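Worked example (supplementary).
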Amino acid sequence: MSYLRGIAAIYWKDVLLEFRTRQSIGTMLVFCLTIVVIFNFVFEPGSEAVREVAPGILWSSFAFAGILGINRSFSFEIDRGGLQGLLLCPVERSTIYFAKVLGNLTLMLLVELVTLPIFAILYNLPTQINLPGLALALVLGTLGFAAVGSLLSALSANTRAREILLPVLLFPVSVPVLIAMVKSTGPLLAGRPFGEVAGWLRLLLGFDLLFLAISSIMFPYVVEE
Amino acid sequence: MSKLGFLFTAYLLIWIVLAGYLLSLFTRQRRIDRELLNLQEQLKRRS
Amino acid sequence: MRNAEARTRIFDGALWAVTSLAIAAALYAVFLYAPTERTMGDVQRIFYFHVASAWVAFLAFFVVFLASVLYLATRNLQHDLIAASSAEIGVLFTTLVLITGPLWAKPVWNTYWTWDPRLTTTLVLWLIYIAYLMLRAFAGEEEKTARFAAVFGIIGFLDVPIVYFSIRLWRTLHPKPVIGGSEGSGLHPTMLITLLVSLIAFALLYATLLRLRVRLERARREVRRARLALNA
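After joint prediction of all chains, the assembly is encoded as:
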């Protein structure tokens, strides 16, 4: 029980901090929308090809914008010695990891929530989107990405290269999650029934649990000192 | 390119890459050895 | 002391000799001993070194994984020495796989590249270990480099089967013109022997390179320590 309370406390600290400074969320949102607009130049106006690659565009923007927030989740702790403080807390080390995963998940989901309707309008997506299914796919996919991302962010933030290193480390490792996310989002965006992507969603859930388990075991090794 | 051309290009490239790597290992080793000697001399001189 | 030095020199010489012999034997087997494949013709001879590189690359990354686990368990920097060296050589052999692959695919499948599970996984594998080498280059102090690299070495290796699995699903759920993988099934005995000889030759080459690379890494760390001592 105190384990969960520890997670909640650290998570709440990050939420408050973000709420007061609004540093990450704004940048992520604007960046995400910019990518959506830039991808638009790839297509001929009115081309039907857009529908086929829509999930790919959507997830590329989410992932690139997500990298910004995930990067900051540890680098800002290091700048002001906050990590030392966190490590002194009388909680297990993995608590910090889970709190950061939750924080990154929240940030990315907020960005997705705002981007998705704008995306649907800009790209003329069909109106019969399977919303409950899509919501589940977004949560599961983002969780997997944040699970690996939070661990690797703790790694890269502690190196000399800082922010530059995270994308290089994170993208190849998160390939399975990215594939499953794109594959399950595609049919749902086209309004297909939930059953068609149930396999991919179950797989995504499996990846999430696997990545959460491995990362939470490895996390204490990253922050020991 | 003929089929045999692909075969020989492949084998040629394998040896070029391997030779390049070996060469880089030797040059790196030589440079580091020289630097180590240099540093050890400096340390000796200081003490 | 001098005795030990002489012994390593003899061992090094022997290793070089055996490796060269094995490579010569493999070349002989590939070009003269192995029969010409019926449908693909002589190009199929790329297969032997292509597959040997792939297996040796995988062996190298497995060594990285083992050394990483051992390092985190024992904190002995000797293990990290091996992990760093093996990762670089693994990337070298993966590069060979990625060079020979398209050169074999073009005359046989009439395309340099296809996003088939094995090819794609190899490419992702290559990217993961290049990232590993970059992490090492940027991490900072020796102990931190070793620790971070070990964490990433473990995650990267565990990720590979997951990547392969997900890509295979992605491909089978999305069928494309079937591209025949020709390896494995029904390999002619002389071909199998040639493959084994190539495999042994490349494994020996891996051992030789690893020894050289470990020596380089050790010298590099001595330099680093000497520099720290000088600045202290």
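Two points are worth noting when inspecting this output. Chain C has one domain: 47-175+188-231. Residues 47-175+188-231 of chain C form one domain.
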